[in-house]
Design brief:
single chain; alpha/beta; Rossmann fold; 6-stranded parallel beta sheet; 6 helices; 6 strands; globular
């Protein structure tokens, strides 16, 4: 299976990006392909319905990775009870053909206890794009974010946080596999 992860922060040391990198590691450790699009490293232009930005290298890479994906992970920091503007901008460039009937895992990092508002917004966007929301999501906040600071080894992630992330990623991969088989049957 192919999984595309979008790290939607414009902050170099974002814990949401580090969490997305760890999820990428877990996906590849399970024998699947994983492509991480880090919007801080490869920004896309501001969305405008008047300009398709054809030929913009980072945008074309994002669109190709999303079309090729069997499953999608969207990771965002929570800013003012919402998703990052960087991620929202990238999602505005995408359409139903990028999400239709694909499993989508929503992931967020918040300075507070949990990031429910941003995760709820992500799931609403996914529904509007005809993606299939994973019934679980990952929210890290407060001290949990320390496990995903720059320089922290995967082996040093707090055991409770690691157990939860692994369980949710495995659930997401199971849903992705189920939907992928279903899509193959429909194509035949």
């Amino acid at each position: 299976m192919k999984v595309t992860l979008i790290a939607g922060s414009n902050h170099q040391a974002a814990t949401s990006t580090r969490l997305a990198e760890y999820i990428q590691h877990l996906v590849t450790s399970n024998g699947h392909q994983a492509t991480l699009i880090d919007l801080h490293q490869t920004p896309v232009p501001f969305y405008s319905p008047d300009n398709a930005h054809g030929g913009h290298e980072a945008l074309e890479k994002l669109k190709r990775a999303m079309l090729d994906a069997d499953g999608i992970v969207l990771a965002t920091p929570e800013y003012h009870s919402g998703i990052s503007g960087v991620l929202k901008n990238a999602l505005d460039h995408l359409g139903q053909d990028h999400f239709n009937n694909k499993a989508v895992l929503s992931v967020s990092s918040s300075g507070g206890a949990v990031a429910v508002s941003s995760l709820t917004q992500l799931q609403t966007i996914v529904r509007n794009l005809h993606g299939i929301n994973c019934p679980e999501w990952i929210s890290i906040g407060g001290d949990q974010r320390k496990s995903f600071q720059t320089g922290i080894a995967y082996s040093d992630i707090h055991p409770d946080v690691d157990k939860r992330v692994r369980r949710v990623v495995n659930s997401f991969l199971d849903l992705t596999a189920l939907l992928s088989v279903r899509q193959e049957v429909v194509r035949q």
